[in-house]
Amino acid sequence: MINVLVVEDDPMVAQLHEHYLGQIKGFQLCDMVRNGEEALKLLAEKSFDLLILDVFMPAMDGLQLLAKIREHGYDVDVIIVSAANDKDKIKTALRLGAVDYIIKPFEFERFNLALSNYQKRFHIVENQEVIAQAELDKTIVRHEQENVMTLPKGLDKHTLAVVWQQIITFDGMFTTEEVSTKVGISRVSIRKYLEFLKSLRLLKLELHRGSVGRPVYKYLCVDKKSDVLSVYIQ
Model pTM? Predict the structure, then answer.
């Protein structure tokens, strides 16, 4: 079991971490604190395998805490989960040894990917005194087959690829019916793919009210060049 400490000053995000951790086997949330001082006190008293850390916190921010963790030599891995998305903070976190960096807002799929990758590395490194190159590569080199994520039930990767290729041809907003016509499958099925893409923050949904008739929901592709889908459709 991987013992986890969460350092997060936003109660709602902390609850989200607790909820997500409860869905991933092999992880145990041991403690949750709201600032760096409390975290350092716990680290001096108890042993943790993984620390999930925010950057923006009062008094001591997450990067300052991470620097102190390294200064004190605490044997704990760190995954950053933060709204801080500027390159300097990300570079600092990685140079201080963060094993992953998740930018808020985030979806469960990204959180699950980070923890799954960490879990593989943890078990290989912790359970073997001598590690072969092939085993080490599993923890460092992301093989193509290891990057494939599971789609929600009822979705097909080939259809998802077709739907995405049609979406990126739209110049501006589009409706479920317009995608359905292009792809050639029902609106009910298309809606499932569009909602999945929205959950990955590749699409956004807006309500449009015309001068006559009922309101219409329209989608907009917010990042046509994103490679997020590559882990689902390989």
Answer: 0.60
